[in-house]
């Protein structure tokens, strides 16, 4: 444990981290990858280029400083990060590397303001935080390995089917090459795919939400092809999966992970909202509710740009016809000729109030602007925080 003096020093750096946090984390990643390029086989290069990963780390470091004397308050956030670490294969030996380069970055950015006393306080604090992560992740590795059908690290799966769901989304049905059982999962969780395209120097890892209920002898992921837009390059892994991977090919994946999951212990109404490819965890949750708790009231609302980019439309319509307790609604931002939807434009609070129960639990996922709009609407409506659940694709952001 840190003594009171070290805690006081760490807390004194909070204002500095608020101002210089992202500069520190950008410097950290640049230095670490220069010193340890092998770690580029683990980290998402796109998130580095777009600044998402440095921003997420800066937020985490800031939160650690603010709560350094009561780290238990950020334990849910720590466990969410640890889930991703386990899925990526982060090991205890990686933590000293991170610590060394993070302290060096603090010293580089803050210069003389980073006194020996401050560096020593952060060295001790990092050691404590790293031990928490290592302990939690060790338990997660054991659980992933020892569960029925579980495994450690990456396992080879055959692409049994490849199904085009829309102009931009394709589903991949994955069966284990060894023919043995696969681990079950909670609706909302993801698997991590490891690929190394021929023209790439490093291995690339990506998390993809499982897009069906956990009742099948296969996993299904539904991947949006990320095309180049203005200064944003095309997605390396999504394009590889869409254009290079075919039925019969092998993909390596790690066991299901993630803390964004459907609470199946409740019988209150549920409202599921998705934007674009954010439908993947929502469809898994929806199918699970309909199968396990068919009397539970559920509303599914999906927003897409138009019909050509809308995946699984027929599937959702079919489920809606089959289940009396399910109501589904469709919003197209820019409907094309022939498109049929319940609302054009965007989801707004006045409309949401006409279709959703204010006593429901709300789950949502999609692009960050979509999630910010939904979160703001729910807060304006007065929905309590404990009934608002959401998932970011990629590093955690803020809404």
Keywords for this entry:
Globin-like; 12 helices; Cbr1-like_FAD-bd_dom; alpha/beta; heme binding; 6-stranded antiparallel β-sheet; Rossmann fold; 42% helix; Elongation Factor Tu (Ef-tu), domain 3; 6-stranded parallel β-sheet; 12 strands; 19% strand
Question: Outline of this structure?
Answer:
This protein is α/β, with parallel strands linked by helices.
Describe the structure.
The chain has 399 residues and is α/β, with parallel strands linked by helices. It has 3 domains: 4-146, Globins (Globin-like); 154-257, Elongation Factor Tu (Ef-tu), domain 3 (Beta Barrel), CATH 2.40.30; 270-391, Nucleotide-binding domain of ferredoxin-NADP reductase (FNR) module (Rossmann fold). It contains 12 helices and 12 strands. The strands form 2 sheets. It has a 6-stranded antiparallel beta sheet with strand order 4-3-6-1-2-5. The chain has a 6-stranded parallel beta sheet with strand order 10-9-8-7-11-12, with helices on both faces. The longest helix has 31 residues, at 116-146. Residues 152-263 form the FAD-binding FR-type domain. Belongs to the globin family. Two-domain flavohemoproteins subfamily. In the C-terminal section; belongs to the flavoprotein pyridine nucleotide cytochrome reductase family. The record marks 29 as: Involved in heme-bound ligand stabilization and O-O bond activation.
Q: Tally the beta strands.
A: 12
Approximately how much beta-strand content do the residues carry? 15-25%
On the 0 to 100 scale, the average pLDDT is 92
* Biggest sheet record: 6 strands, antiparallel
Distance between the terminal alpha carbons, to the nearest Å? 33 Å
What is the H/E order? HHHHHHHEEEEEHEEHEHEEHEHE
Unreliable residue runs: none
CATH architecture identity of the largest domain: Orthogonal Bundle
Active site: 95, 137
GO molecular function, one term: oxygen carrier activity
InterPro entries: Cbr1-like_FAD-bd_dom, FAD-bd_FR_type, Flavoprot_Pyr_Nucl_cyt_Rdtase, FNR_nucleotide-bd, Globin, Globin-like_sf, Globin/Proto, Hmp
Site (Influences the redox potential of the prosthetic heme and FAD groups): 84, 391
């Amino acid at each position: 444990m840190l003594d009171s003096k070290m805690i006081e020093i760490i807390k004194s750096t909070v204002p500095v981290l608020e101002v210089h946090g992202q500069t520190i984390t950008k410097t950290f990643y640049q230095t670490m990858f220069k010193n340890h390029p092998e770690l580029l086989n683990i980290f998402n290069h796109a998130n580095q280029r777009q600044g998402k990963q440095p921003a997420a780390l800066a937020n985490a470091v800031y939160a650690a400083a603010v709560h350094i004397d009561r780290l238990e308050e950020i334990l849910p956030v720590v466990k969410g990060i640890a889930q991703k670490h386990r899925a990526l294969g982060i090991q205890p030996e990686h933590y000293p590397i991170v610590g060394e380069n993070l302290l060096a970055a603090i010293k580089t950015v803050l210069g003389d303001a980073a006194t020996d006393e401050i560096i020593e306080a952060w060295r001790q604090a990092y050691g404590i935080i790293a031990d928490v992560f290592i302990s939690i992740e060790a338990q997660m590795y054991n659980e992933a390995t020892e569960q029925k059908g579980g495994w450690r690290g990456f396992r080879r799966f055959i692409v049994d089917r490849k199904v085009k769901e829309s102009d931009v989304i394709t589903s991949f049905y994955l069966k284990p090459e060894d023919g043995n059982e696969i681990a079950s999962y909670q609706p909302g969780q993801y698997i991590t795919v490891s690929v190394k395209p021929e023209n790439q120097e490093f291995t690339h890892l990506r998390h993809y939400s499982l897009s069906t209920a956990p009742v099948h002898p296969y996993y299904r992921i539904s991947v949006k092809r990320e095309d180049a837009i203005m200064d944003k390059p095309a997605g390396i892994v999504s394009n590889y999966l869409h254009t290079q991977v075919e039925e019969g090919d092998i993909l390596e994946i790690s066991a299901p992970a993630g803390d964004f999951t459907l609470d199946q212990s409740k019988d209150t109404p549920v409202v599921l909202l998705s934007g674009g490819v954010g439908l993947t965890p929502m469809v898994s949750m929806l199918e699970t509710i309909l199968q396990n708790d068919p009397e539970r009231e559920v509303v599914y609302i999906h927003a897409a740009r138009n019909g050509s980019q809308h995946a699984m439309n027929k599937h959702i319509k079919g489920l809606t016809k089959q289940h009396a307790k399910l109501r589904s609604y469709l919003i197209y931002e820019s409907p094309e000729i022939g498109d049929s939807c319940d609302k054009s434009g965007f989801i707004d609070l006045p409309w949401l109030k006409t279709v959703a129960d204010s006593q429901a639990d709300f789950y949502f996922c999609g692009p960050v602007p979509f999630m910010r709009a939904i979160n703001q609407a729910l807060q304006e409506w007065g929905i309590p925080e404990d009934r608002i659940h959401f998932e970011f694709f990629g590093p955690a952001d803020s809404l």
